[in-house]
Amino acid sequence: MSSNIGPEAKAAYQRYLDASSLDEKIKRLEEFISLVPKHKATEKIVALNKSRLAKLRRQQEEHRQRAKSTGKIVSPFSIKKEGIQLILISDYRTPGVGKTSLLNLLTGAAKEQIGKFTAIPEIGIYTFNEIRIQIVDMPSLMEGASTGVGNGKEILSQLRACDLICLCVDLSRNIKEQMNLMLTELTNSDIRINVPVPPINIEKTGSNKIQVFYLTKEAKNNPDLVSFTEKIKEIVHENGIRNAVVKVFGSITLEQVVDALIPAMVYKKAIILATKGDLPHTEANFQLLKELYSNNFSIILGTSTKKRNFPDDFGDMILKYLEKIKVYTSQSGNVAEKPLLIDKASKVKDVALKIHRSFLENFDYAIIIRKEARQKRKKVGLDYEMKDNDIIEIHTI
Ligand SMILES: Nc1nc2c(ncn2[C@@H]2O[C@H](COP(=O)(O)OP(=O)(O)O)[C@@H](O)[C@H]2O)c(=O)[nH]1
Ligand SMILES: [Mg+2]
Q1: H helix count then E strand count, the chain
Q2: Domain CATH for 271
Q3: Residue 308 and residue 373 in one domain
Q4: What is the pTM assigned to this prediction?
């Protein structure tokens, strides 16, 4: 082993090698990784061992699933997703951070549950400008949630399908402690937040070798592409893959390669909702929160449910952040009151499909009414790009 890692880390590595059970191996390897100083010379060791760790965790999860697979019931944690879904999370403490109070302020739901410990999710609908957003108030996360403490696995698995995670932070308490707990449990559950999906695609093949291709200029922009390629190959190999084509589409780190090899990895957007801003001495904590986290969180909001302080334009802010636009369907001149929410840069065909498959199959043409456009009414085809507030009338054959 390299001399760059120090005696403590070496000892930890030996303990990892000596460990006999899977749980023990995981614990020791985590310990080792945390002890390795992070710099250029140790980059590969860290990446390789993170990859190993991910593999061990997958094995552990498989064991657990197998042990559980007898007698399946529907979990009280599973929530039917309706439209856009926001999930509130926080760490666990009595009194609570204020999630249920926020849910109640925004949706009117769950008033009786404020100030109480809730073991299962509470749900409400936040409405603005005829748009409905589902808000889910999750039970708090305890330390070790990602390993199952306090129903943590059930809680965290619900986050995988949501549109936005809202990390709720009590401004009257230590904010770093709360953020660290949430961020650690998310990371350990293979949920990455506010980072782009790694620009890489790994496909197993029958070719009996691992080939790496760099498909864009940014991907090739690496001073030492040859050794970087070797490192990628090693990491892929370490994951038990012997034959693969690896395509890199952009600038990428070895950490991202490791992430890309974890099949369960999801990439989510997240914001921070700071609570109890009415309490004394919370202003300094709010400033600190922004200082520490605004690099990774472009939305950090200060709130107080006691004073009913909450941004009026929350809904619009969220839609913009999630890159959603609203369009209005129209039939024989009657424009729908409720908009449809679609992804930015969606096309006419996406709208047709969203209404009903038959609109796509029998599509003839569409009329787009765009108030600020020079030509207000325009006849268009399936590939026409939609803009916010467009009115669309689809004609079928
Ligand atoms: N001062 C103050 N107290 C709050 C605020 N929001 C919630 N609380 C109190 O904090 C406690 C926990 O609130 P709750 O919404 O149940 O938190 P949860 O456990 O995260 O759902 C309750 O006693 C609330 O009255 C706030 O904005 N200001
Ligand atoms: Mg609650």
Answers
A1: 13, 16
A2: 3.40.50.300
A3: no
A4: 0.81
